[in-house]
């Protein structure tokens, strides 16, 4: 890739945000660009939330529970993702399983369980965590209702740093994906009986080894990872220090970190009436947007000091405007890129404002979002 800091051989960390099928399609386009550059082989760690977790889970499933090579992604995985997302509605399937199967009525308040059933039955994700390849490492991020911490599934273990960790080789990948997308209200949590697992925890942060630990909660309520960090950055990026982590928690050093953000831009609009139940949702959205914005600022500050170490790929960015904005000192690359056809500002806006849902997409919508993700990756990585 001429003109980019993402040189062959540099290890890559991918953080894939939440945002329902909108984010999944956007990420599909980002990964397509990386595959065309033969860079999927250099991915060392993947961290995902919600729609990002749905995308990664489908990607592993489509490649025999392995991270695909660049050729396999282009020839097999990407076409299958397009077919699945445009022909099958995870949301409808989960609703029908909840309503029509009396055995599922017990999950009325914890509907992530039926979402997991739909992922397994409709998408064919039948693997356990133990079936997945160890490399690259995949952090499936959730939120623990009891502790408010980032709960994650990674390398056949689950837990958070308050609770400790348990080995879960036989845990369903479909359940982990569903938990990562279990937004409060719309889906609800997936509950886990803590006594079914053996937990270990370090008595102190730098203790040599963990010891057996009995959780103070009989039941854990696990929610969407977006409540804690909708960008999925924390496993790889220290927000406080504004640096890629080098603390031994990763299988190797990440040399280039890509944050693919398919989250919906925060809409500017009048706040609902005090008696309107959506007023509370608006307030919650403000809090979540501010949490996301602080993480984005930390990562962008890191990039300004270390421009050769990563890229932030945000949905909704207008390619031509951005290329012109960053053209100083890169005039030759900018001129080449501006000579090509890009999505219009209206098309980019349409992609960014696609609803956060798990419904089936039209082929037109998938192609628009995937192209937007592809273009956003291309101009960022070739310009920067």
Please render the helix and strand layout as text.
Layout: E1 12-16, H1 20-36, E2 43-49, H2 51-62, H3 70-87, H4 90-100, H5 112-123, E3 137-144, E4 150-154, E5 157-160, E6 164-167, H6 173-180, E7 190-193, E8 199-201, E9 211-213, E10 219-224, H7 226-229, E11 237-238, E12 243-244, E13 256-261, H8 278-305, E14 310-314, H9 319-325, H10 331-338, H11 345-352, H12 363-383
Helix pairs in contact: 1-2, 1-3, 1-12, 2-3, 2-6, 4-5, 5-6, 11-12
What would your notes on this structure say?
With about 375 residues, the protein is of the alpha/beta class. Helix content is about 40%, strand content about 15%. The protein has twelve helices and 14 strands. It is globular and about 60 Å long.
In DSSP terms, counting alpha (H) and pi (I) runs of 4 or more, how many helices? 12
Strand content: 15-25%
- The helix content, as a percent range, equals 40-55%
- Could you give a short account of the major beta sheet? 12 strands, mixed
Helix/strand-derived category reads: alpha/beta
Write down the secondary-structure element order.
EHEHHHHEEEEHEEEEHEEEHEHHHH
Gyration radius (Cα, Å) is 20 Å
Total strand count, please?
14
Measure the end-to-end span: 12 Å
Overall average residue pLDDT: 91
Large-scale geometry: globular
Which regions have little confidence, pLDDT < 50, spanning 5+ residues?
A: none
